[in-house]
UniProtKB/TrEMBL annotation:
SUPFAM superfamilies found in the cross-reference section: NAD(P)-linked oxidoreductase
Species: Hymenobacter defluvii
Record-linked Gene3D superfamilies: NADP-dependent oxidoreductase domain
UniProt name for this protein: Aldo/keto reductase
Segments forming domain NADP-dependent oxidoreductase: 16-289
Alphabetical list of CDD domains matching this protein: AKR_AKR11C1
Amino acid sequence: MKYNQLGKSDLQASEISYGCMSLQDDHAANARLLHQAFDQGINYFDTADLYQKGENEASVGKAFKGRRSNVLLATKVGNQLLPDGSTAWNASKAYILQAVEQSLRRLQTDYIDLYQLHGGTLDDPIDDTIAAFEQLQQEGKIRYYGISSIRPNVIREYVQRSAMVSVMTQYSLLDRRPEEETLKLLHEHSISVMVRGSYAQGLLLDKPAKEYLGHSAKEVGAMATAVRATAGELHTAPAQVAARFVLDTPGVASAVLGIRTAEQLAEALRIKECTVLPSQARQTLEEVLESKQYEQHR
């Protein structure tokens, strides 16, 4: 497994990381799968207080209670759970300082390696949000912080105003919008990209083609066909091609893959066997569809 530095931090994250959002309700089954991933070299595990109303964090915390110093735990904040079971966006300093205590308790740890704002808008009290993260860093409750966002205007603000080390964003062969500005901006500022959505909801692998982010079902099918053809030429699997496309992009530190089953974990682990996507293969894939641009939050 290859490990990459996150931004200017001292965190070294596996290039294939574990997106925990799809974990099951069975803590024991989750622990077995998470331990398997760890034993095969995955050291970065990403969750959020929003997932399963906190139970996701609890399951991850229970699994790694005895291995805490060997893993990187990342979680997210900003979606406040209301008494009626709904959620409301809250990026205030007071809320973040309160929410982190609950995440620490559920994760059964006294520090979080990477604490991320789970979204963000220009209407947020951005300086207060940053102040909350920096206070938590000074207190030792978090080691570093970042944001999870697809909004170029929000990402620009945090690049200019914060000391974040990473941005989690969606990027794939069917969503190349970050190429217009975001990827270059973050790379120039030594801020790492954690990619989600590398498989485009499975449309690049085995899901039936459908409309996706402005691409017609026909276009989506054409890209999936191209991915399969490339995989055949390279004697690898479509999942490896799709993941390597994002991982070979400058500034990308890790592909955060949603893993729910042993089969999905095995598929994710096979990606490390394909060390690089040949430049000609990458160019061929890029030429299948015209890259889109963000229409909102520019």
